[in-house]
Amino acid sequence: MASQRGEGETTTTPVEPADRERARAIPEAAVARLAVYLRVLSGMSDQGVTAVSSEELSQAAGVNAAKLRKDLSYIGSYGTRGVGYDVEVLVSHIERILGLTRSHSVAVVGIGNLGHALANYGGFPGRGFPVTALFDVDPDLIGIPVGGIPVNHIDEITEVCLEREVSIGVIATPPPAAQSVCDRLVSAGVQCILNFAPVVLQVPDNVEVRKVDLAVEMQILSFHVARRADEAAGVSAGIDSAGNNGLGVDGMVIRP
Amino acid sequence: MASQRGEGETTTTPVEPADRERARAIPEAAVARLAVYLRVLSGMSDQGVTAVSSEELSQAAGVNAAKLRKDLSYIGSYGTRGVGYDVEVLVSHIERILGLTRSHSVAVVGIGNLGHALANYGGFPGRGFPVTALFDVDPDLIGIPVGGIPVNHIDEITEVCLEREVSIGVIATPPPAAQSVCDRLVSAGVQCILNFAPVVLQVPDNVEVRKVDLAVEMQILSFHVARRADEAAGVSAGIDSAGNNGLGVDGMVIRP
DNA sequence: CCGACTTTGTGCATGCGTTCACAAGCGGTA
DNA sequence: TACCGCTTGTGAACGCATGCACAAAGTCGG
Ligand SMILES: NC(=O)c1ccc[n+]([C@@H]2O[C@H](COP(=O)([O-])OP(=O)(O)OC[C@H]3O[C@@H](n4cnc5c(N)ncnc54)[C@H](O)[C@@H]3O)[C@@H](O)[C@H]2O)c1
Ligand SMILES: NC(=O)c1ccc[n+]([C@@H]2O[C@H](COP(=O)([O-])OP(=O)(O)OC[C@H]3O[C@@H](n4cnc5c(N)ncnc54)[C@H](O)[C@@H]3O)[C@@H](O)[C@H]2O)c1
């Protein structure tokens, strides 16, 4: 689920679920899975598969079959009972819901290690996300084409973004520059931001931010090994390597 | 939340929450946030801040103050009422919980666009995740150092991973190679995998997989703009650009 | 045309995560 | 020492998401 939205919600129609709007409210978690189903379905389509059951699709997508059916039910009833789903039909409906009927042009800001990788990556245009603009501050980079697109100076961000109708901004600058870059993207009218810098961005309510934080991902993995490790070692001994009382278990104990 | 774990749960002690184990069960979502708090706290510590209240910290981390306190309560009670938290104390406890007291060495497989960026990135070692091994199949890459580490051939993966005690494997190969690479990592004893390839990996229960799927992130962003766009345009008209009946709203209507 | 079989769509229960609200606890002050 | 104001820690309520289980709805063979 998104991590950078928090307070935004409270401002939009406090307590009044007009049922028309509720119909549009697909759970955030379901949206993420729909994108995965779409990828799997596209792959099937490419291989000439024309029909699929919820069981097959759910296995390919790595989820529970009931969950898959519920997710699909949010977008409508396009299956045939006793048979399954038509792959093409499902693809087009998911694309429609995800807003992929038109393509969304992407700008990458910060053409360093990561920015180069993103600009050179061929996978986005095919999925409806053409990279159309690159920005940096480094004079050595300005004008140099990366992945076919010449790098512009960050100061040109407003004009270029408006001209090329950029709808998604990707931030791949060092952390200290991220907020400032974000602000510039927002004032250039970009309403969607994908942030790779390990920084919590401040944005107005009408802008959607998603972050990709690799260090956090690794730390979550680290947490799970640690858990597994001392589950295996037995939890009975209350003292761990650091000499702390084990895990602060007391916190969970109901006081007598 | 993780997306590649699903079925695993059912196998581990079906229905019996021994309260000792439950104490260890920190909600997955909370773990992700703890990692963010840790980063923010480290930043504060570097700036000489020694104490912080839940209100301040929660703002810096972009979350609700109550949620922050609950998250911290999962790891114990290390605050002082009426005062707040000692930054250093919190840092050390979060590090302990996340298993960051020892460092976890990382192997990157697939030294293409993305693999290069990861190998060159200086941010991981400092956070306890030194990159110690790189693998590829391309003969032109083998032996070449990237970010100071020479690339090994993928066939050496088992020996090298064991020798360098790799605990996290990062997959940055093209999608078709991902499952095979994953299997090799698993048989080399790697229990944590971070997957950049847009593929659903199949792994045994004792292996933890997290995926980073940029296309999915962008599609989620796309979904939100689309929602906003036709909220603004008004939903009353039942026909959209593609000529479909609007959004399959019927699916949500209760039959009379 | 009918009955058996298959698979969808979903009501419902359960569990998890978030948020509220407040008592408990601590430091400072008179 | 007793009081006051502030902040933590958490019980409890709520809301969202997951998974089950089954009726509804379709296909296919006879
Ligand atoms: N490279 C990785 O694998 C990786 C992994 C995790 C996180 N990150 C994060 O991604 C971001 C980029 O990482 P990187 O390795 O590519 O860094 P980098 O230093 O290689 O590249 C940063 C680029 O941003 C440019 N830049 C600096 N300030 C700018 C500004 N104000 N406007 C526009 N451009 C500006 C620099 O000129 C440089 O080209 C960092 O925040 C980093 O923490 C990177
Ligand atoms: N580059 C990006 O910005 C980006 C963005 C989103 C997703 N991805 C995904 O990340 C993955 C890597 O992307 P990339 O742009 O770096 O690709 P790339 O083609 O530049 O690099 C892939 C590398 O993997 C190596 N490789 C191929 N088969 C291998 C095998 N069996 N074992 C070991 N190495 C092998 C290749 O030799 C190559 O060096 C892809 O799955 C891609 O879909 C990349």
From TrEMBL, chains A, B:
Q: Give the matching SUPFAM superfamilies.
A: NAD(P)-binding Rossmann-fold domains, Winged helix' DNA-binding domain
Please indicate if the UniProt record lists Transport as a keyword: no
Binding residues for NAD(+): G110, I111, G112, N113, L114, G115
- Keyword terms of this UniProt record: Cytoplasm, DNA-binding, NAD, Repressor, Transcription, Transcription regulation
All copies of domain CoA-binding, residue ranges: 99-200
Q: Which GO terms describe its biological process?
A: negative regulation of DNA-templated transcription; response to redox state
Q: Which InterPro entries match?
A: CoA-bd, NAD(P)-bd_dom_sf, Rex_actinobacterial-type, Rex_DNA-bd_C_dom, Tscrpt_rep_Rex, WH-like_DNA-bd_sf, WH_DNA-bd_sf
Q: In which residue ranges does the UniProt entry place its DNA-binding region annotation? A: 36-75
Entry GO MF terms: DNA binding; DNA-binding transcription factor activity
Q: Subcellular localization, per the record?
A: Cytoplasm
Q: Superkingdom, according to UniProt? A: Bacteria
HAMAP family per UniProt? Rex (MF_01131)
What is the recorded function of this protein according to its Swiss-Prot or TrEMBL entry? Modulates transcription in response to changes in cellular NADH/NAD(+) redox state.
Q: Which family does it belong to?
A: Belongs to the transcriptional regulatory Rex family.
How this chain assembles, per its entry, is: Homodimer.
What is the designated name of this protein? Redox-sensing transcriptional repressor Rex
Organism expressing this protein natively: Lentzea xinjiangensis
The lineage, from the top, is: Bacteria, Bacillati, Actinomycetota, Actinomycetes, Pseudonocardiales
